[in-house]
Design a protein that fits this description.
Pfam families: WAC_Acf1_DNA_bd. This is WAC domain-containing protein. The chain has 87 residues and is mainly α. It is 46% helix and 0% strand. Helix 2 runs antiparallel to helix 3.
Length: 87
């Protein structure tokens, strides 16, 4: 339903216009792309596809998956320690 300025409001979105909601969604999408690299996408999508557990459990499972396993193309830091023995 349009407000006094003639803009439509999107229900349930803190009284944002459709354009404001779309712009906010774009900003969040950009932030997520910066914070969560592409290599997380496939394992998480495979996990959630047809999954019927609660959202809380699903988030926990995805978090454990990301923290405990490497994904294809994931960037990794490799630390090598050298032990020098002087004789």
């Amino acid at each position: 339903m349009p407000n006094a300025s003639g803009h439509a409001r999107v229900p349930g979105s803190n009284q944002l216009t459709h354009k404001e909601a779309w712009e906010e969604e774009q900003e969040v999408t950009e932030l997520l792309q910066e914070d969560y690299p592409l290599w997380f996408e496939k394992p998480v999508l495979e996990m959630v596809h047809h999954n019927t557990v609660s959202l809380d459990k699903l988030v926990d499972q995805a978090w454990v998956e990301i923290l405990t396993k490497y994904a294809v193309d994931e960037e990794c830091d490799f630390l090598v320690r050298f032990l020098f023995i002087l004789v």
